[in-house]
Specification:
Blueprint: E1 2-8, H1 14-23, E2 29-35, H2 38-47, E3 52-59, E4 63-64, H3 66-74, E5 81-88, E6 92-95, E7 106-109, H4 111-116, H5 118-124, E8 129-132, H6 136-146, E9 149-153, H7 155-161, E10 164-167, E11 177-183, E12 194-201, H8 210-219, E13 225-232, E14 240-247, H9 253-265, E15 268-276
Parallel strand pairs: 1-2, 1-3, 7-8, 7-9
Antiparallel strand pairs: 3-4, 3-11, 5-11, 6-9, 6-10, 12-14, 12-15, 13-14
Length: about 280
């Protein structure tokens, strides 16, 4: 059976590389389907147009990917996280063949990639214009088409779009990793080395100790809390939805008990899925 796997395209993005890495060696036939946005991935999975989707969720240098978090939180249909993969990210300055660094007047890329290379740009191209693109691959394709500009993207984009490498590994710090989650219509069965992600909100955020109480539910059961962050609720200013990732599977007795306790404290609660912890 062919599994349809959506990723943030077009071909040549780091998301495509993550999709390729995820699909290799899993004993199934995968068809990779590019989408124009991360939200498009969520929509394709929710509608059944694809079976799974690869979505970037956080980067070493730039932190969380808001569009992914918002889709996980606010999608009408739950998009369970089924798996995760961590990809080392190397970024390249790519241009039309024959272009020199002195020719570059504009640098194009996705805002996340531009942020990861901010120091490199300021040191080497202080007078260059900056243009945002939807994707790194699209930026490289545009730079090759236009000339007098350079795109920041993956090395694979150079191979696909016929670009020349002007500078390699230009990200400001190493290691530079992006974590991707795989969303589907159901999460993963227990493996013995799992994570569970959840999101929750409180009715009255002015009441002291609510967040501490929720976190204490994990502490009291010796469940490791590996990550916590917040996103705006999109309802009114100053109200937030908290996202947490813990060790263990939602069906583990201690985890299930803790999740039930936290849900009882909250006005809104969603388990985002249980999935195997990524190990390189």
């Amino acid at each position: 059976m062919t599994i349809r796997l959506a990723y943030f395209g077009p071909p040549g993005t780091n998301s495509e590389e993550a999709a390729l890495k995820y699909s290799q060696g899993r004993g199934s036939d995968y068809e990779l389907i590019p989408t124009q946005t991360i939200t498009g991935i969520a929509g394709a999975v929710a509608s059944g147009a694809v079976d799974e989707g690869v979505m970037p969720i956080e980067n070493t240098l730039e932190g969380a990917v808001p569009e992914t978090l918002d889709n996980l939180i606010h999608s009408e249909k739950l998009l369970p996280i089924r798996d995760e993969i961590v990809l080392p990210i190397d970024l390249y300055l790519l241009a039309k063949p024959g272009t020199t660094a002195a020719d570059v007047k504009v640098i194009i890329s996705n805002p996340v990639a531009l942020g990861q290379c901010r120091g490199f740009i300021e040191r080497n191209f202080p007078n260059a214009g900056i243009e945002a693109a939807i994707s790194t691959a699209g930026a490289v394709e545009e730079a090759v088409r236009r000339g007098g500009s350079a795109g920041i993207g993956a090395k694979r984009a150079a191979e696909i779009y016929g670009a020349e490498v002007l500078a390699e590994r230009i990200q400001d710090r190493n290691p530079n990793h992006t974590r991707f989650v795989i969303v589907a219509n159901e999460d993963h069965e227990p493996t013995g080395d799992d994570r569970t992600s959840l999101a929750f909100a409180f009715q009255n955020e002015d009441r002291p100790g609510q967040l501490v109480g929720a976190l204490d539910a994990f502490y009291q059961r010796q469940i490791n809390l590996t990550k916590i962050e917040s996103r705006p609720s999109k309802e009114r200013l100053g109200t937030y939805i908290f996202l947490a990732t813990i060790g263990g599977h939602r069906t583990d007795p201690a985890v299930a008990d803790a999740l039930k306790a936290v849900e009882g404290m909250c006005s809104w609660f969603r388990v985002l899925g249980s999935y195997p912890r990524f190990v390189e």
